[in-house]
Amino acid sequence: MHRFSFFIRGNTKVKYEITEKKAAEILGISESRVSQLVKGKLLDAVTINGRVRISRESAERYRSEARKTGRPPKTSYATVSQYTLMNASHEVASVLFDSAADEPLSVSEVIDPTYAPIGVLTRGGNPKRRVLNSWWLHRSVPRTRPGIESKLAQSGLNTPSNLAIKSMGLSLSDCYWLRPNDAPTLTWEKVNFYDNDFIDSNIDDWDDWLSGIGLSSPDNTSEGELPKKWVIGTNGTRYLLKGCRSDDQRPYNEAVATALYRRLLDPCDYVPYDIVDTAQGAAAKCPNFLGRSEEFITADQAREATSSSRGNSVYDRFCRDASLLGVNETELRTHMSKMIVCDTILANSDRHWRNFGFIRNLDTMAIRPAPLFDSGNSLWFAKTEREVATGDRAFLARPFAYNASEQLACVDDVSWFSPCALRGFADEACDILSASSHAKPRLDFIHEGIEQNIKLVEGACELLSGRIARGK
After folding, report:
1. Which residue from 374, 403, 414, 379 is spatially nearest to 240, judged by alpha carbons?
2. Which domain holds residue 301?
3. Are 110 and 43 in the same domain?
4. Are strands 281-287 and 238-242 parallel, antiparallel or unpaired?
5. CATH code of the domain covering residue 50
6. Helix, strand or coil for residue 72?
């Protein structure tokens, strides 16, 4: 026999007949979310003998209104699934995923904006669908990844963004995931890849860059055009392996960058890379720089979240805007100065706005600069034989200026810089690169280029030091 009570509200007799658990089943959400809706008076409820009883009519009405809010196109109802966007154990939003839509994610209700991805909500807490889907797209394997089209065909999927759903959007770059509404009891502790094993994760046994794609693996949410694979070391550390395409220089470039960072920076300033041999050639291996309660926020996301016009330059605006998110501006300027100087020495042409950023701690919500990583597109790896023969060492500096000298002018802290630490670096770099079949014939070209860039950096840092001294 069902237990329920009648109460008179105004002139209406209201029947309170369902429990929080039953309401959760009707709405396809968790019981904790039902409790939030009750406290927010979005569900009609009373407490009887210490137990909450809810009006079925109000639950049905809430479900109907939620559907209208996030209604997908009429042609795609069969392709729509309901999820709760989670950030670790925190419920962020009720979302719909339409696998047939160009922008598959839509928000039907924001639950807790505090833990939402940076930049996907307006200051008033409303979802920005374009930004949300851009965020999701960048969590997906791009179409430029070698072999991805055949993998999609094997999986019966039309776009890479649908691959991430195969593993609930779980990543090793943050703590976001999509909890299916038909599995409301699923927990972060049970599913996260920081603590739990995943498909084809043994560092000694894997045999294919795409073997984890479409299965329960963080490989579904690995951004970038180069072959990538997450593996687990014998010590439990999660490592990212990154291969190469037509050339084999870029993995070795990562090792050269690590050698430079060791000379100039503190260990916390960068992610170290080693070279490993695979069946497909050399690969760069680095440990995950995030913990299970941390997320990586790209500089692009940070700009989307602030977009201020204060500052005399792109660099100045970026540093000031980041401080609005809680980043220590002084520490950030020092970190950015290190990045610019090192990228200049390495002739890094790929420091775009998603290749650096911040780390947010979910427990404290503190934000700090992320260590430097992904420096493979450097040391003139893409130069043609003709360009090498003519001594063309020009490169596109990024992200604050296209010219290396102009970008060096942004540097505003060189207290950490030690010219003596660079003695012999060009020799060390070429020793590392001598193992690359692509780089070996052009070592003299690279050696001279590094030496030239070091002189450029030393001159700029000396000039800045003098300017600072005169200012004091």
Report:
1. 374
2. 294-471
3. no
4. antiparallel
5. 1.10.1660
6. coil
**Do 213 and 219 contact (CB within 8 A), yes or no?**
yes
Cβ neighbours around 409 below 10 Å, total: 17
- Structure confidence at residue 74 as a pLDDT band (50, 70, 90): very low
Rounded Cα distance between 188 and 168, Å, is 11
CATH number assigned to the domain comprising residue 381: 1.10.1070.20
In the numeric block, the tokens 């020793």 are attached to: 431
Please confirm whether the linkage preceding 399 is cis (ω < 30° from 0).
Answer: yes
> Does residue 380 share a domain with residue 332?
yes
Nearest-angstrom CA–CA distance, 467 and 472: 9
Choose among 430, 414, 263: nearest CA to 340: 414
Residue 75 clears pLDDT 50, i.e. is over it: no
In a domain, 286, yes or no: no
Domain shared by 331 and 306, yes or no: yes
Element (H, E) at 149: helix 148-155
In this structure, the answer to whether residues 16 and 132 fall within a common structural domain is: no
State the angle between helix axes of 314-324 and 299-306 in degrees (0 to 180), rounded to the nearest 10. 80
To 10 degrees, the CA torsion angle through 335, 338, 344, 345?
-150
In which order are the strands placed within the sheet that holds 176-180? 105-110, 90-98, 80-87, 176-180
User: How many domains, in total, are found in the chain?
Assistant: 3
- Cα–Cα distances in angstroms (integers) from residue 67 to residues 23, 51, 328, in the given order: 16, 28, 42
Mention every residue, 6+ apart, whose C-beta is less than 8 A from residue 278: 241, 243
The answer on 152 and 53 residing in a single domain is no
Residues 440 and 433: beta-carbon distance below 8 Å: yes
CB-based contacts of 186, cutoff 8 Å, min separation 6 = 179, 180
- pLDDT tens by residue, 332-361: 999 999 999 999 999 999 999 999 999 999
The pLDDT confidence band at residue 12, using thresholds 50, 70 and 90, is: low
Indicate the residue among 30, 48, 69 that finishes a domain. 69
Structural domain includes residue 459: yes
Same domain flag for 415 and 323: yes
> 236: which 2 tokens?
């439990």
C-alpha–C-alpha distance, residues 140 and 131, integer Å: 15
d(CA 77, CA 68): 13
Please tell me whether residues 180 and 59 are part of one structural domain.
Answer: no
pLDDT of residue 25: 80
Q: Are residues 110 and 188 in the same domain?
A: yes
| pLDDT tens string 242-292 | 998 888 999 999 999 999 999 999 999 999 999 999 888 899 999 999 999
Question: CB under 8 Å, gap of 24 or more: what pairs does 385-391 form?
Answer: 388/442, 388/445, 391/445
Is 340 a domain residue? Answer: yes
